[in-house]
Amino acid sequence: MQFLLISTQSLFRAAEIIRGGGLAAFPTETVYGLGADAFNPAALARVFEVKGRPRFDPLIIHIAETETLEKIADFSALGTERVKKIHLLAEKLWPGPLSLVLPKRESIPPIATSGLPTLAVRLPDHPAAKQLISLSTGAVAAPSANPFGCLSPTRAEHVRDLLGEKIDIILDGGSCRIGLESTVLDMSSADIRILRPGGTPKEAIEELIGNVLDASAAGKGAEAIVSPGMLESHYAPATPFLAYTREAIIKQSAEAGSAFVFFDGESRDAYFTAQKYIAADKPVIRVLSEAGNLHEAAAALFEILHELDKLKVRRIIAQFAPEDGLGAAINDRLRRAQH
Ligand code: TXA
Ligand code: MG
After folding, report:
1. How do residues 254-269 score in pLDDT, each as one tens digit?
2. Strands (DSSP E) found in 142-291
3. Which domains does the chain have, with CATH numbers?
4. Within its chain, how far is the Cα of 97 from the centroid?
């Protein structure tokens, strides 16, 4: 495995690897992706194998230009209204953390979409990611570069620790700006639905195309899993993990060996006031955003959870964010991380 900083040379090297059927991890604005040629079934099979990912969990196809969209997605069965909405979202929110689920064309092999008649596609907002996609085959399947069920990587070192020698190259582009995966929006049927909340807030989508449904909270029971990102335990740290509201977290006892992740500085201060414990027993304390900024908090979340996993604390106790904007995606990940 080669571990290289982003440069023209390393981008050419990674593109060559992808064209040859290999696997290249690369940064995007959300999390690091594990890239394979979206047209090569053998390379795609290796992605599932390396991640230990169930074959029923389809991949997201990454493109570098909006023009590629209609080469892999089939708009013919969608009404003009929906096609207009797709174009509007692509125009206003791409490049960006939004994956659109659309009917697929035959050019993408069935293994990429787990046999589904639809595919998820996004145009990432990261210059190196776009260059890599353009230099390889124009369509790169890239799930998050972590073993199935684990925390997504927001740094190249996370990828190295999680997947290491199983892959061919890791491009190091530093920390991911957004730090949470893309929002997955299903536009393949008339009821447009959010399958996974993520880096694009629901509000930003609704401002452009009107109301959309939220399927991400449902799907617990007997219903078929529409998006395996909806599986209850996903994105989980290895350490036992619980999440609480602000009111509840400040009442949690400060057991030595546990770690507290507060949403903002104010909540941490309220906790200290409420607890008055002896300094020697201090738990590990982290704050997602001192000022309570949702963007900062989203970018810090996986970073801090990876760090706490490494510290091998006994338990992580985290605080939910306010539910608006990116808070919905942060809270979704916190709920799923509980175990
Ligand atoms: O931000 C992201 O989306 C990152 C970066 C690398 O771009 N990628 C990512 O990929 O999170 P992954 O494979 O970890 O998550 C893909 C999600 C899964 O929840 C999958 O079920 C859903 O997208 N998905 C993919 N294709 C789908 C389809 N045809 N229908 C419904 N859900 C789909
Ligand atoms: Mg993932």
Report:
1. 777 899 999 999 999 9
2. 169-172, 183-186, 193-196, 213-214, 241-244, 258-264, 284-289
3. 2-224 (3.90.870.10), 241-337 (3.40.50.11030)
4. 9
Q: Does 81 score more than 60 pLDDT? A: yes
Are 263 and 320 spatial neighbours (Cβ–Cβ below 8 Å)?
yes
CB 67 within 8 A of CB 121: no
Residue 223 confidence class, pLDDT cut points 50, 70, 90: very low
- Retrieve residue 115's tokens: 């046999």
Query: Does residue 128's CB lie within 6 angstroms of at least one atom of ligand 1?
Result: no
| CA 261 – ligand 2 centroid, Å | 22
Least confident of 140-149, 278-287, 304-313: 278-287
Alpha-carbon 94 to chain mean position: 16
Residue in 30, 178, 184 to alter for ligand 1 test, most ligand atoms within 8 A of Cβ: 184
Question: In the predicted model, is pLDDT for residue 225 greater than 70?
Answer: no
Cα-Cα-Cα-Cα dihedral of 298, 299, 301, 302, to 10°?
Answer: 130
Q: Cα(66)–Cα(90) distance, rounded to whole angstroms? A: 7
* DSSP label at residue 262: E
